[in-house]
Design goal:
By secondary structure, this protein is of the alpha/beta class. It has 2 domains: 226 residues, 3-Layer(aba) Sandwich (D-Maltodextrin-Binding Protein, domain 2); 86 residues, Periplasmic binding protein-like II (D-Maltodextrin-Binding Protein, domain 2, 3-Layer(aba) Sandwich). 43% of the residues lie in helices and 16% in strands. It is built from 13 helices and 10 strands. The strands form 2 sheets. The protein has a 5-stranded mixed sheet, with helices on both faces. Strands 7-6-8-5-9 form a 5-stranded mixed sheet, sandwiched between helices. Strand 1, helix 2 and strand 2 form a beta-alpha-beta unit. The longest helix is centred in the C-terminal third of the chain and has 19 residues. The radius of gyration is 19 Å and the shape is globular. The chain starts with a helix and ends with a helix.
Length: 330
């Protein structure tokens, strides 16, 4: 087990403590704090919409997003009770549950990874990466799983290329633009920055991986057991925000909301909106079942990241599926 994995294991075991109840806001709504990986991230678009348009408030909750340094750190906050929920990579939550964290997967946030593989200007295809250096998120990161899928489909196997790691798209983009790597896994808006600078997109993940949900929400067991109405309120507000997002007449306002939250350029956010809609990235029904997790569990097992059996059913809490059902419009 790597040093990083030992740290994550110990942290989850130490911090999997009873969670704290959410507090009410000034309007009497149940405040739900959600730990995430950064301010203004496009996957959290429905959260920002739900707050701005009042979809959460009309269902008795308010949502506060707090930034953590990584997906693992965000998950730790939900496990420790300093946040009621976390949102981020599905694999981080699954690793936490595997190592004893008292967490439940609640729902899928994004069902497709919006990654693209960008390369130096002299490289035009994934096949040309043989003997080259590629930067992904980490040795146990889902971006490595994604890249290996893309590479294998183009006749490359581990050992045919060198890997280095950086946990965020801005860091990976910086490595590409500095010339220190030959290709990088990027997602919006960093991918649009790369394209704008003339770096070729040599592969979209959506063309290669269709069986691995990208990000999801998790809740602490103890808090979830005592706050089911608040969870249902969150799920109803989130679903209404997704429906609003997909309505093209709301495009300009949706873009304005994320521009304000992220500080990104209008042009990049407009491109991100159109790309997200083309992927249908936010599932209306985000209920998680064992079939949806099978490929992710198998990938984690192949990386020898799991302490327990590679059985997707052990990552599912049927009560969360029931809450999603109760929150789904009839």
């Amino acid at each position: 087990m790597s040093r990083r994995m030992r740290f994550v294991t110990m942290a989850f075991l130490l911090l999997a403590a009873p969670t704290l109840a959410g507090a009410g806001d000034a309007n009497g709504a149940e405040r739900i704090t959600i730990a995430t990986t950064g301010k203004g991230q496009p996957p959290e678009w429905p959260d920002y919409i739900g707050n701005r348009k009042g979809f959460f408030a009309e269902n008795g909750v308010s949502v506060e997003l707090v930034a953590a340094q990584s997906a693992a750190a965000a998950t730790l906050q939900a496990a420790a009770g300093s946040a009621q929920m976390s949102v981020g990579g599905m694999t981080e939550v699954m690793l936490g549950i595997d190592h004893g964290a008292k967490l439940d997967l609640l729902r899928i946030e994004t069902q497709v990874g919006p990654y693209s593989l960008f390369a130096k200007r002299t490289i035009k295809s994934i096949k040309e990466l043989r003997g080259k250096t590629v930067i992904v998120g980490g040795a146990k990161d889902v971006t490595l799983v994604y890249f290996e899928r893309m590479a294998a489909a183009n006749g490359l196997k581990p050992g045919d290329y060198d890997l280095i790691y950086a946990g965020t798209t801005p860091a990976r983009l910086a490595a590409l633009t500095s010339g220190s790597v030959d290709a990088a896994m990027l997602y919006p808006p960093g991918s649009f920055d790369a394209a704008g600078q003339g770096y070729p997109n040599i592969g979209d993940l959506s063309d290669y991986v269709k069986d691995m949900p990208f990000t999801g929400y998790a809740v602490g067991d103890a808090w979830a057991a005592k706050n089911k109405p608040a969870i249902i309120g969150f799920l109803k507000g989130w679903r209404k925000a997704v429906d609003w997002f997909y309505d093209t007449k709301n495009r300009a306002e949706a873009v304005a909301i994320l521009v304000k939250e992220s500080g990104q350029t209008q042009d990049n956010v407009e491109k991100t909106y159109d790309y997200y809609r083309s992927l249908h990235i936010f599932p209306e029904d985000g209920t998680i079942d064992a079939k949806q997790l099978t490929a992710l569990v198998q990938a984690l097992a192949q990386m020898k990241a799991l302490a327990g059996p590679a059985d997707p059913k052990r990552f599912i809490n049927p009560e969360m599926a029931q809450l999603n059902s109760e929150a789904t419009p009839k």
